[in-house]
Design a protein that fits this description.
Largest sheet: 4 strands, mixed
Shape: rod-shaped
Number of strands: 4
Oligomer: single chain
Helix content: 55-70%
Distance between the termini: 11 Å
Strand order of the largest sheet: 1-2-3-4
């Protein structure tokens, strides 16, 4: 085979059903065609192999594929290696590395979610205090203004301003949190997917070499 490219050659679809699960009888499987397992990981990451991040392009492709997979089905990934499958011990290390990578992504995403809720709570507290002050100030100004029309205009303007201050915490608690939570759950699924390694066939090797040329 020719020299390995910097990023893995990625399958364009899912593979056949793998081991059955009790609910659906199948799992969604992603096929990745690689020259060797090192292509799956970020070569610039100085961490030990087991803690190394996945290649950014490969990780993005896997996450996109998993996001389109049916929510109720377990996931699987098959690495087709042109240089020959590694030993069972090496394959276990690759499997654990993939799982640990997505576990770290899930933990990082949940930290972001907790930080978002913390910002939302502080924003809500500030907005409610501001709303209370605005109501008090509006009532005081209204009592000092002689014309009722002007007093109502001032009060309404202050109330509108206070509701604008409430928009950010409402946006967080109504809209912003659930995409992050869904992303964390997706990473949880990926951290539990079945990862297998096998030798690529001659036709599959030609496919990888054709992509490299």
């Amino acid at each position: 085979m020719s020299a390995a490219p910097s990023t893995p050659e990625l399958a364009t679809g899912t593979g056949p059903p793998a081991a059955a699960d009790g609910r659906s009888g199948r799992r969604d499987v992603l096929d990745l065609y690689l020259a060797d397992t090192r292509q799956l990981f970020n070569s610039m990451d100085p961490a030990p192999f087991r803690q190394r991040d996945l290649d950014p392009n490969a990780a993005a492709y896997i996450v996109d594929w998993a996001g389109e997979a049916p929510a109720g089905q377990p996931l699987g990934m098959v690495l087709h290696l042109g240089s020959g499958a590694p030993s069972e011990a090496d394959a276990a290390i690759v499997r654990e590395s993939v799982h640990e990578y997505f576990q770290r992504r899930a933990a990082t995403t949940r930290r972001q979610l907790r930080q978002l809720f913390r910002v939302g709570r502080y924003s809500l507290l500030i907005a409610l205090v501001f709303l209370g002050l605005v109501i008090v100030v509006g009532e005081s100004i209204a009592s000092l203004v002689s014309k009722e029309r002007y007093a109502a205009l001032i009060q309404d303007s202050l109330v509108i301003g206070s509701w604008v201050a409430l928009w950010r915490p409402l946006e967080i608690f109504l809209y912003d949190w659930w995409p992050i939570s869904a992303e964390a759950k997706l990473f949880d699924r990926l951290s539990q997917m079945d990862v297998r390694i096998r030798n690529a066939t001659a036709a599959e090797c030609d496919k990888v070499e054709g992509a490299q040329s």
